């Protein structure tokens, strides 16, 4: 009896989550022409252990909130597989992901274009440990 009750609660919870996701997507598509979006610029350096979580957190944020999210990852001379991981995650749903390299003079090899329908540009320098808290669903 308890097992059946738990199954009913689990199915109900999954149904509620799916309804929220579908509703958020509907709202995002309905306002696509006029909606604003957030643009996160992440500056990384040897972040292969964290970058996947950061990008997946932004993807979940976009899907659950219905916010259009664009992410630009600029890598500062990583010696690990940070860019390979980012390249592999370009298919994540909910976000538009582009990547490039960050030169030591503070310029990007692929400069993020300013777009008129972006609500705000949020620059997060992940080389500083406490800046990651600006990413939704990431705790410091």
Give an account of the 3D structure.
This protein has 140 residues and is α/β, with parallel strands linked by helices. The protein is built from three helices and four strands. Strand 1, helix 2 (51-65) and strand 2 (68-75) form a beta-alpha-beta unit.
Task: Record keyword descriptors for this entry.
140 residues, alpha/beta, Rossmann fold, 3 helices, elongated, Glycosyl transferase family 2
Topology, pairings included?
Elements: H1 2-30, E1 37-44, H2 51-65, E2 68-75, H3 82-88, E3 95-101, E4 118-125
Parallel strand pairs: 1-2, 1-4, 2-3
Organism: Paenibacillus vortex V453
Protein name: Glycosyl transferase family 2
Query: How much of the residues is beta strand, in percent?
Result: 15-25%
Portion in helices = 25-40%
Report the span from N to C terminus. Answer: 42 Å
CATH class category label: Alpha Beta
Q: Low-confidence parts, pLDDT < 50 over ≥5 residues? A: none
- Global geometry: elongated
Topology order in helix (H) and strand (E) letters = HEHEHEE
How many beta strands in the DSSP annotation? 4
Helix/strand structural class: alpha/beta
Q: What would you report as the Rg, rounded to the nearest angstrom?
A: 18 Å
Q: Widest sheet: strand order?
A: 3-2-1-4
| Multimeric state | single chain
Biggest pleated-sheet summary = 4 strands, parallel
CATH architecture descriptor text: 3-Layer(aba) Sandwich
Fill in the CATH topology.
Answer: Rossmann fold
What average pLDDT do the residues reach? Answer: 82
Whole-number count of domains: 1
